[in-house]
Design a protein that fits this description.
400 residues; mainly alpha; Growth Hormone, Chain: A; 2 domains; 15 helices; disordered C terminus
Length: 400
C-alpha cells in the first residue's frame, strides 16, 4: 500500500526545505518558556518573567502576519533574513540585559524586537502549496505540517527548560536564537522551491483579515487556541491538586499524541466531502469534546478526555488551512496562513490567562469552564461559518 507521506517527498528539494523549516520553527516553542525559566533563575521574579514572555508572544502574534505580508510582496529570500536578524539580535540583547543586569524596562524593549520572529510554519506550507496546489497531496502536506507543529511544541519547551537548568540560565533562549538563524539561512538558500512573487493588484493590497471568510477562520482558531491554553494550565493545576504534579506531562503528551495521530490519519484520507461541510463537522466535534473535560475526576479520566479532544484538533486545523488556501489569492497566501497560526497563538494565551484566573478563584476542574465557553464559540462559528463558506464557494464557482 502506497504511503501518501513518503510520496510527498518525491518532489526535488522537498526534504531540504522541510528540515530547514523544522529547525527554524523550533524556537517558537522554546523562546517563551525559555525566557520564563531564564528570568526566574536570574531574577527570582515570576511576575516579571511572565510579563516579558507575554510581551514576546503578543508581539510575535501581531507582527508575524505583517512579515508574511511582506513575504508575499517581495519573496521569502528578501524578507526572512532581515526579520530573523532582528529577532535574533533582540534575543541576544535580552540575554545580555538579563545577565548584567539592566533595568527591567530594557527586557520588555528587547522582547518586542525578539517578536520579529517569522512564522516558519506558514513559509513551509506556502512551499507545499506551490508544489501541490489543486491536488489531494496538498491536504496530506498540511497534515504533515500540523504534526510537525505539534512536535515542535512538544519538544521545544522541555528542551529550553532542560538547557537552562542543566547548563546556565541563558542556554535555552540562546540555543533558540541560534536555531532560528541557522534554520532561516538554510531555508532561504533553497531558492528552487521558493514560491514566486505574484503581482498584487490595487484591490488586493489590503490585509486579508478584511475578508469576511478569513475572519471566520481566524475566530475559529482563536477559540480552538483558547481550548488548548485552558487544557495546558488546568492539567498542571489538576495534577498538583491530585498530588501527582509529574502526571501533568503525561496528560499533555496524550493530548498532543491524539492530535498527531489524528492529523496523520486525516491527511492520508482521500475525502470527497465539500470543505464547508467538513468545517461544520469538525467544529461540532471540537465543541462536543469540551464536555468530557468537565466531568474528569481522576488523572486517568482527564487523560482520556484530552485524548478525545486532541483527536479533533489537527483535522479542524487542516480543514481551516485548506479553506484559506482556496479562498485567498495566491499573492497573499502566506499572510493568510500566518493569520490563522497567530489566531491560534492568541487563543492559547487567552485561554491560559483566563483559566489561571478561574483556577485561582475556585479550583482546578472549574478552569475547564473556560474550555466549555470556547467550545460554544467554536460551535457558533461552525454553524455560521459553514453557510458563509458555502456562499463563498458558490460565488467562486460561478465566476469561473
Amino acid at each position: 500500500m502506497a504511503n501518501p507521506y513518503r510520496e510527498l517527498f518525491d518532489q526535488p528539494g522537498s526534504r531540504g526545505f522541510v528540515l530547514a523549516g523544522l529547525i527554524a520553527r523550533l524556537p517558537i516553542g522554546m523562546t517563551g518558556i525559555g525566557l520564563i525559566t531564564m528570568l526566574a533563575l536570574l531574577r527570582d521574579n515570576y511576575a516579571l518573567a511572565g510579563a516579558v514572555a507575554a510581551t514576546f508572544a503578543l508581539t510575535t502574534a501581531l507582527l508575524a502576519p505583517q512579515i508574511s505580508r511582506l513575504v508575499d510582496r517581495f519573496g521569502q529570500h528578501k524578507v526572512l533574513p532581515g526579520a530573523a536578524a532582528i529577532s535574533t539580535s533582540g534575543l541576544l540583547a535580552l540575554l545580555a540585559c538579563a545577565h548584567w543586569p539592566a533595568p527591567d524596562w530594557s527586557l520588555f524593549v528587547c522582547a518586542v524586537f525578539s517578536g520579529f520572529m517569522p512564522s516558519m510554519s506558514a513559509m513551509v506550507r506556502a512551499r507545499w502549496t506551490q508544489i501541490y496546489r489543486g491536488t489531494p497531496q496538498l491536504n496530506t502536506a498540511y497534515a504533515l505540517e500540523s504534526v510537525l507543529d505539534e512536535v515542535c511544541f512538544i519538544a521545544g519547551p522541555p528542551l529550553a527548560v532542560g538547557l537552562s537548568v542543566a547548563l546556565f540560565p541563558q542556554a535555552g533562549p540562546l540555543v533558540a536564537a541560534l536555531l532560528l538563524a541557522i534554520g532561516v539561512y538554510a531555508f532561504v538558500v533553497q531558492r528552487r522551491t521558493e514560491p514566486p512573487v505574484q503581482p498584487v493588484t490595487a484591490e488586493h493590497r489590503q490585509s486579508v483579515i478584511r475578508l469576511g471568510c478569513m475572519r471566520v477562520l481566524v475566530l475559529l482558531l482563536v477559540a480552538m487556541g483558547t481550548i488548548v491554553g485552558t487544557i495546558d494550565v488546568v492539567s498542571v493545576a489538576f495534577a498538583q491538586q491530585e498530588g501527582q504534579p509529574a502526571a501533568a506531562s503525561i496528560v499533555l503528551s496524550v493530548y498532543a499524541l491524539g492530535s498527531c495521530i489524528a492529523g496523520l490519519v486525516f491527511g492520508g484520507l482521500k475525502l470527497r466531502t465539500p470543505l464547508p461541510r467538513l468545517f461544520l463537522w469538525c467544529g461540532l466535534a471540537t465543541a462536543a469534546t469540551t464536555l468530557p473535560l468537565l466531568v474528569s475526576s481522576t488523572i486517568f479520566g482527564l487523560s482520556l478526555a484530552v485524548l478525545i479532544a486532541g483527536i479533533f484538533f489537527a483535522p479542524t486545523l487542516i480543514v481551516a488551512m485548506t479553506l484559506a488556501e482556496q479562498m485567498v489569492p495566491g499573492a497573499r497566501l502566506t499572510e493568510a496562513l500566518t493569520w490563522l497560526i497567530s489566531g491560534l497563538g492568541i487563543g492559547v494565551a487567552l485561554g491560559a490567562a483566563a483559566a489561571g484566573q478561574v483556577v485561582d478563584a475556585f479550583d482546578a476542574r472549574s478552569g475547564f469552564v473556560v474550555a466549555l465557553l470556547a467550545g460554544v464559540v467554536v460551535l457558533g462559528v461552525a454553524l455560521y461559518g459553514q453557510r458563509r463558506l458555502q456562499l463563498h464557494a458558490s460565488a467562486a464557482s460561478q465566476s469561473l
